[in-house]
Write a structure and sequence with these properties.
By secondary structure, the protein is mainly β. Helices cover 5% and strands 30% of the residues.
């Protein structure tokens, strides 16, 4: 904050991994460019239940560009439907040992978009010809997708295409990674895959997380999908601009 504590100069939302009360993690704001001599660092626990051990402020190389995002891959561009498997690799997954299980993995049958003739899964952008699902079998496993807005529109529709044999809850967290506009930071919502009477993986449902949500004017965002109950197959994610009626 400014020296008089009246205005926020820079801000960033950081996420603490759920490693338990006995394991501490370093949550790092990589590079913050400072001009003035006096600052106030304000830390807000947005969801509570966090133990703060200490803060550290270290000088870095002045030749380094602040928040250069060199290693941040904005692999999804709005709008569009994106295949879950195509945009997932080991680096995106939670590395907490309790959450690894034996997932993710591709199933050749019966969860196969071409076999089941699911149009959304088939048309989702993918380098895979058949397999377009990520199967989760453990509670609280999660994926993180990074995306970039490519238009001036601020309102989007966010949806998930899933299959489950019974009702399964899914937490969706949307974070802005560009706080320069000071408008949008973080929103969360829990949706549920409804399951089906015949207990089949072949029946897909499109879950609308936000039919219309204003995400502001920032360009960079992340979408975190947490499978709270496990045993859910994610086919594709959809992020589309809401049509503007003039």
């Amino acid at each position: 904050m400014s020296a008089d504590r009246t205005s926020i100069m820079q801000s960033k939302v950081l996420e603490v991994p759920d490693s338990g009360w006995k394991k501490f993690d370093d949550v790092v704001w990589g590079s913050v460019y400072l001009k003035a001599d006096e600052y106030t660092l304000k830390v807000i626990s947005m969801t509570g239940s966090v133990n703060l051990c200490f803060t550290s402020i270290t000088a870095t190389d002045s030749n380094t560009d602040p928040d250069s995002d060199q290693d941040f891959d904005h692999n999804i561009e709005v709008p569009g439907y994106y295949n879950a498997m195509h945009y997932v690799n080991a680096e995106f997954f939670d590395t907490t040992s309790e959450h690894l299980g034996n997932c993710p993995y591709m199933k050749s049958t019966p969860v196969d978009a071409q076999i089941n003739n699911d149009s959304i899964c088939k048309t989702a952008i993918s380098k895979y010809e058949k397999h377009c699902h990520v199967a989760f079998t453990e509670k609280n496993e999660f994926l993180i997708y990074n995306f970039r807005k490519v238009a001036t529109q601020t309102k989007v529709r966010v949806s998930l295409r899933v299959a489950s044999k019974s009702r399964r809850k899914i937490l969706v967290v949307l974070n802005s990674l560009d706080m320069t506009n000071g408008y949008f930071s973080r929103v969360t919502k829990v949706v549920a895959a409804p399951g089906n009477d015949i207990k089949s993986w072949d029946i897909y449902n499109t879950l609308v997380v936000w039919d219309e949500i204003d995400i502001g004017t920032a360009e960079k965002y992340s979408l975190k999908i947490v499978f709270l109950d496990g045993r859910t197959n994610l086919c594709a994610i959809g992020i589309d601009y809401v049509s503007l009626v003039l």
